[in-house]
Backbone:
């Protein structure tokens, strides 16, 4: 991608065939699909790319064993179809970006023979639907074998049922989709909010009124077709296009915790039942344990921080299955997101809503909205949306090319790529693994920055693989403009630990200041604003506060950091 200022110039008051609104998984997928079919496309995102739901998922590439259970229990064909489609997509999603995805084994605890039969039969059906996708089939593990894999599990279990799904880095996957899109000639711009539309005599949308969220300057983007890919916020854009449209979305809030429990396991734990009939996962994630999630009806106006009540809820339910319980003091970070669910007048709760998608074409304004869906099905959703775009453009439908299109960083990538990096650039294994797992073969671009400026090869934070060069790269090539853009979605440090992110903020801010021409006062304001935001999240979650290091302490590499 370009430097943001250049991207702004490339879309400001320009004309395109297609304008995609929303820079999460769905919008990025639509933009890539359209551009690959030769449709000149611009994507506009109101906040940061992947700044909403698409970086707040459980990070599973999956069909959904819970949805399969619902399909069988209620003989629900829609749920069944969703699982089947998602299992087909699971394969493409993993193949197209192997460095951002990996198989993950999930263990479901069984305490009775009935549990073994019930989950065993369900998971065999899951295997059957998935077909031969290169995933290990499900199997029963004895009590001893289960405890050797997850030592914290309660000792009175009979065993576990193990099955395999995919795991991925959601924020980086979205950025990689956008990188692939712009490499094919598309234009993407973050911090560009669509505020309204212009129409022709027939009422069809012709241009979007956009506000640059950094300068608050307004401009327009003309397009022959507009796609609304704004996930949980889709109703607001639908109503900008046509105020007569009624609400369709029923967003649901889901939260996750990250815990410092490196001893927990290599495998993930599936907690099969909560008091409110959900499942919870505890999944190893980049050196932390990711625990989630909840499912509560929410308003479509930003999820807000994770609350102390939600922390207690998740820990209480997982701890029912553990002899070595997880505790609040081990929580090092947390995040919340809104599921973009389509409402169903017959259901008052959100957990029973099907995670299905729908392409809606508004005949009056011509707006195409892609509603609902899951991360795992983003590609199929984009394919159907772009089919509808071609119909609106009045051009023949051309074949979709995304099912087998390696994303940026995937060409020539092999599982031992990190070893080549380590040998070629004399890197520590954890640094090489970190770079390969975030950037694939694009890692060499970051290492070239280090070759030119060796001080950029210093680590950004202790115990975390990221290099300072990644901050520079994310500003120059990934349109990062704030500390949170860098420390959360580009580098992932904010999810590794709030403490580590607050400690790294002064260093990251100094690097960003050089790239973006910040004055000292702007740099200080950026650090203060970021630190205050993290402190708010910590306070909302009912945890102990983090103490920021001063710039001087950060430069000295010492000083008190975390009480
Ligand atoms: C707790 C939780 C766990 C999940 N776990 C999984 C999982 O493990 N696997 C899976 O497959 N799926 C999972 N999902 C679902 C998945 O994350 C979502 O389906 C997916 O991320 C939705 O992407 P999206 O692009 O539609 O929405 P978003 O990522 O929310 O993107 C919409 C974007 O539109 C932008 N926007 C809004 N209004 C405007 C405007 N006026 N102008 C410009 N831009 C605008 C927003 O800023 C936002 O960035 C989970 C969801 C949640 C909440």
Residues:
């Amino acid at each position: 991608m370009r430097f943001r200022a250049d991207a702004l110039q490339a879309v400001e008051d320009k004309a395109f065939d297609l304008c995609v609104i929303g820079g999460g998984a769905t919008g990025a997928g639509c933009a890539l699909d359209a551009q690959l079919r030769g449709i000149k496309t611009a994507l506009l995102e109101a906040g940061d790319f992947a700044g909403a739901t698409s970086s707040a998922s459980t990070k599973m590439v999956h069909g959904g064993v819970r949805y399969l259970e619902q399909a069988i229990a209620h003989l629900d064909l829609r749920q069944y179809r969703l699982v089947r489609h998602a299992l087909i997509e699971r394969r493409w999603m993993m193949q197209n970006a192997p460095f951002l995805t990996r198989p993950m084994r999930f263990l479901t605890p069984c305490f009775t023979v009935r549990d073994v039969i019930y989950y065993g039969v369900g998971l065999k059906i899951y295997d059957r639907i998935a077909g031969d996708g290169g995933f290990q089939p499900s199997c029963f593990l004895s009590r001893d074998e289960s405890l050797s894999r997850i030592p914290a599990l309660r000792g009175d279990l009979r065993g576990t049922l193990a099955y395999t799904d995919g795991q991925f880095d959601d924020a980086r996957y979205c950025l990689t989709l956008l990188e692939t899109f712009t490499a094919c000639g598309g234009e993407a711009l973050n911090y560009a909010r669509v505020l309204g539309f212009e129409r022709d005599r027939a009422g069809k949308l012709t241009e979007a009124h956009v506000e640059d969220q950094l300068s608050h300057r307004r401009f327009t983007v003309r397009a022959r077709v507009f796609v609304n890919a704004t996930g949980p916020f889709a109703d607001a854009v639908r109503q900008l296009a046509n105020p007569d449209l009624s609400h369709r979305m029923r967003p649901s809030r889901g939260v996750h915790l990250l815990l410092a429990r490196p001893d927990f396991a290599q495998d993930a734990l599936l907690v099969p039942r909560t008091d409110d009939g959900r499942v919870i996962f505890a999944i190893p994630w980049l050196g932390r344990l990711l625990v989630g999630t909840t499912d509560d009806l929410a308003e479509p106006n930003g999820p807000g921080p994770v609350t102390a009540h939600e922390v207690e809820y998740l820990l209480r339910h997982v701890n029912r299955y553990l002899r070595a319980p997880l505790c609040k003091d081990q929580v090092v970070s947390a995040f919340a997101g809104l599921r973009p669910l389509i409402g169903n007048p017959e259901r008052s709760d959100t957990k029973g809503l099907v995670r299905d998608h729908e392409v809606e074409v508004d005949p009056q304004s011509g707006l195409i909205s892609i509603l609902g869906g899951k991360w795992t099905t983003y590609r199929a959703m984009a394919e159907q949306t772009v089919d509808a775009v071609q119909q609106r453009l009045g051009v023949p439908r051309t074949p979709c090319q995304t099912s087998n299109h390696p994303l940026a960083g995937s060409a020539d990538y092999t599982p031992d790529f990190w070893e080549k990096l380590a040998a070629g650039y004399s890197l520590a294994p954890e640094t090489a693994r970190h770079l390969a797992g975030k950037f694939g073969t694009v890692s060499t671009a970051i290492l070239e920055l280090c070759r030119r400026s060796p001080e950029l090869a210093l680590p950004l934070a202790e115990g975390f693989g990221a290099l300072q060069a990644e901050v520079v790269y994310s500003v120059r090539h990934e349109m990062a403009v704030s500390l949170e853009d860098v420390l959360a979605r580009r580098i992932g440090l904010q999810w590794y630990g709030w403490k580590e992110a607050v400690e790294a903020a002064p260093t990251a801010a100094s690097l960003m200041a050089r790239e973006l021409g910040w004055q000292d006062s702007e740099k200080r304001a950026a650090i203060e604003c970021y630190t205050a935001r993290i402190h708010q999240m910590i306070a909302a979650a009912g945890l102990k506060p983090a103490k920021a290091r001063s710039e001087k302490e950060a430069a000295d590499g010492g000083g008190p950091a975390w009480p």
